[in-house]
Amino acid sequence: MIDRPRKSQSDLQLIGTPMRRIEGLDKSTGRAVYTDDIVLPGMLHGKILRSPYPHARIISIDVSEAEKLEGVHAVITGGDIPTKYGIIPWTADEYPLCTDRVRYIGDGVAAVAAVDEDLAIRALELIRVEYEELPAFLDPYESLAADGSTPYIHEPRKEGGNGNVTKQVQLEFGEVDELMAGSDVIVEGKYFFEGSTHTPIEPHCAIGLWDGVGKLTVWSATQVPHYLHRELARVLELDPARVRVLQPLVGGAFGGKSEPFDLEFCVAKLSMLAARPVKILYTREEVFYAHRGRHPFHMKYQMGCTKEGKLTSVDAEILLDGGAYASFGLVTTYYAGQLLCAPYSMSAYRFDSTRLYTNKPACGPKRGHGSVQPRFAFEIQIDKLSEKVGLDPFEFRRRNFIGSNTRTVNELRITSNGFLECLESVERASHWRRKFRRLPFGQGVGVAGSTYISGTNYPIYPNDMPQSGVQMQIDRSGRVSVFSGASEIGQGCDSMVAYIAAEELGVPLEYVRVLRGDTDFTPVDLGAYSSRVTFMLGNAAIDAASKLREMVQKAVAGEWEVEAKEVLLVQGIAMWAPDTERQMPIREAFNLAESRFGTLGATGWYNTPKDVHGEYRGGTIGASPAYSFTAHVAEVEVDVETGVVEVEKIWIAHDCGRALNPVLVEGQMEGSAYMGFGEALMEEQIFKSSEQGRAGLHNAPSLLDYRIPTSLDTPELESLIVESIDPEGPYGAKEAGEGPLHPSIPAIANAIYDAIGVRVDRLPFSPPNMWRAIEGAREAGTLVKPSIPDGVQVAPGAPHAGTISSGS
Amino acid sequence: MPAVTQIVRLNVNGDLREIGVPMHFTLLETLRYELGLTGSKQGCDKGDCGACTVILDGRPTLSCITPVCEAEGHSVITVEGLADADGPHPLQDAFDLHGAAQCGFCTPGILCSAIALLEQTTSPSRREVKEALAGNLCRCTGYSKIYDAVMSAAQRLQVEAHLDRSHR
């Protein structure tokens, strides 16, 4: 893909060292600007009226009283923007405001723009909406069983079909039934993953500005400015060349801002009608309704292995509770199965995955999209199999390691793979061999592993253009300007391109400016999702920077009459490799290059290799240019009287290819493990049933009641970076932002089993759920410390053996 | 029908300010909308997340649930008031150095809570730091790097205090 020579590993000056973020001090001094910090002259405030019913027909909407209120400048309803949108082009099923039907409590039906927020709220109170309530589907099994006697949530795509089904995927690789029947050991389990939501601390916010003659500008706290740009133009029927999207710094996203939302269309339309800028800031409650968080999964797994502990066959059945709209659900339905085929090899695999609509806020992609839920079930199943064949769970995982440079059973290409090193790191750091099955009753350790994509191989809308582009220019002052369309959501991608520019062009980091977040002047990057940014933007940045470097090297070489490749650009100086005393300041080198080649600028780009997946339908989904690998050990203490689980510590080992800046990589690993921990023990995005009050109402749409971990809840976290140096990643880097979340949850579940002998198969492991499981075990007489598996012969304190022993 | 306004006198970051605001305004609304001090953030608007934390007479205070009139006659320090002409506060620098801010949205509130602690003691235990930050939600970091930053700033403050004494 990029055939330009890259710096060799030993040449690296900055990459791999701890560095500050380019916007770090802005963030710690309050100078950093987020969308809600922006105030435009004459700006109005918008508010959206939301449905109080989970499922209803809109009979009529009367906005006349609201329009009469002094200070109200515009009121819109569904009919004003009657075009469906959706992040996946084939499943666009949402209107910016509902036209004739509401599908969850919180669905938007009208919006107003007024001189201030209080007046906008008063205007909403004056809007009269007449609804005809419809029976609601709150349980995915009810949605699945629907026969059309009451209205489906969406119109069936085929005559006689069930309009409550978003998507069904059935894929089979190898001889699943035969191999299962021939397995020495089979374990089965049912699992339930309760939904959870992202809760970035910054609520969604957007500002629309219509210039009155055809140009629309929208500022938004989005993680996908390019897709937002496209959808705004399409839905509002504007010329995309006259739509500009600006993305101020984003105060956290985690997948919760990765598609267009109603507020972005509403600020645009309200501004067009009011001829004034309009801002909408979601309340925290609205953030919970916007949701797009982790789908609840109902899962059934059957898995077999040989008596030596080799995985034979895996058979999975998954029901996804999707909420009211499709969102990314088409992809989620595939990811639920496709991303499970590493880091272990299996001879046969089948999954049947079905996503149902329900009358609740739409689910979508949350950090570890679609694969955190099955990983929870799968890694518990692995633990069960290890125990049945009498192996230490580390040993079982090693015996099934898929290896590097191979293909998975579903034909995904695996290149670099540091999973064994991850296992070894957490085994050693956690003193596993002294603890596993050896801690007192009530205390335990558990291990789990996982893999994740470094970007999706294909963009959301089919095209052959680059997935990421960068433009760089060199100034006579020595400054390097980087124009980047990538989405800084806190992960550090603006800093990452700056590190690369500084590395390649030999300038101090302070000489690099990153100009960002504006579709008017930055090349397209598809967005901060699917852990794609470091891999794709990083390669694009190397491409651009190395073109400039070559020009500078040639110009200096011409001046010195030496070979261009002998000219080094390092830390503000150009020097001659054979005699490094021969030097000139980098500014002088840049000026020589500009004299010779003219104004200095270059573009760089990255696109994915296309031969990395199978040719079957759906084979492209889950395909990535590289995969990261992770292993966790969790240590827990369980109080069997109260059901309280305390997680003492999580050790996180992650193969990120190469840590471009270890500080940022550790931050991603710790943040991921923290988020997984929260889902394991505390978080529940749940809705009331009719017995509990208003059916379909969010149970806890606040940060007090939806409990995310505080500093006092969060366990100690230890990051252990593993570097496998990926052949195609920028300097060998892969993702670090999502993979390290996956094993937290099953590692905690497996640790709970080690502590008290109770298998927990539903999230969260909260005191009520735990207490029920503990009482069940107490009655069954199984509330005891599990025994040491036969195959675990290593005595406490024995020397550590990190190699794979032969299993077959 | 405009809301009833009142004149409030505030001491914000050492500046005396006199402003007309609607009676029901909170301190956060006044800081953000009337004084243009947008460093303090609104994450929940009901006292749950801590992003709006400012230092009121030395105590970390949730400005989103503090009526602005209650701040009259008190010293208000916001994130914008932590640095001085010599440069950023040691904790602001430590946040940058240790990667304690990712998205940065909770950072202003966390800095105010932590600096209020460091005003009390420059040798806090890790447990004391955790307790001081228990009212500030961070969704990015898992808190580890924040503790590292607070502990290293505390050490630097100790060294500076020691140098101050020996220069005297």
List keywords for this structure.
heterodimer, A: 808 residues, alpha+beta, Aldehyde Oxidoreductase, domain 4, Aldehyde Oxidoreductase, domain 3, 3 domains, 7-stranded mixed beta sheet, 19 helices, 28 strands, disordered N terminus, B: 168 residues, Ubiquitin-like (UB roll), DNA polymerase, domain 1, 5-stranded mixed beta sheet
Q: What oligomeric state do the depicted chains represent?
A: heterodimer
CATH superfamily of the largest domain in chain A: Aldehyde oxidase/xanthine dehydrogenase, molybdopterin binding domain
What is the molecular shape of chain A? globular
The poorly predicted ranges of chain B are: none
Overall tally of structural domains of chain A: 3
Which percent range describes the beta-strand content of chain B?
Answer: 15-25%
Helix content of chain A: 25-40%
Amount of beta strand of chain A: 15-25%
Query: Main beta sheet of chain B: strand number and arrangement?
Result: 5 strands, mixed
The CATH superfamily label of the largest domain in chain B reads [2Fe-2S]-binding domain
